[in-house]
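Have a think about this chain, tokens included, and walk me through the fold.
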Amino acid sequence: MFTGLISDVGEIVGLTATNDTKRVRIACSYPHEGIALGASIACSGPCLTVVGVEVQQGRTVFDVEAARETLERTTLGSWHVGQRLNLERSLKVGDELGGHLISGHVDGVATVVARTDYGTTARFDIDAPAPLARFIAEKGSVCLDGTSLTVNSVDGTRFSVLLIPHSLAVTTWNTSRTGSRMNIEVDQMARYAARLAEPFRHPAA
């Protein structure tokens, strides 16, 4: 589990693709001794398993692998060397829950349709995949590229979020522009509430 509070911004330093998997090498500022093989790290949204870790030129570098399901459902298939990623270590018992509970199981890919800067803050208008739009509510929570955000407004499949200066400074959001694609994970409570309500929306004949 994660909270959507980004603790580091990593950089992709290597990619290796096979027929159905992709191995990604990510440099970060986490202490290498604190990353165990098999650990879970959210990388711009997807929860990925560490399969290798070492120190290169004074930086911690860890390897993760993604299978076909992740490649098809997220932006990971288009990642490239030099790309920066929002990173978060998995939540530990006793940690402060500053964002909202996030599983790292990405639901789909959303697109930035507009960015409006207001001095040091920025508003982003996002278009969500149609099947996910019903899980997004005004003043509710949404996870975009691993970041826990509050939904400001909703209009059909489009919604808006506002990034404060701190969030822009410590995440990859400051480089996001119109057309940017983002991994989206809807709020878990909304997902389960919709599932529980299905029998009442479609009663048996």
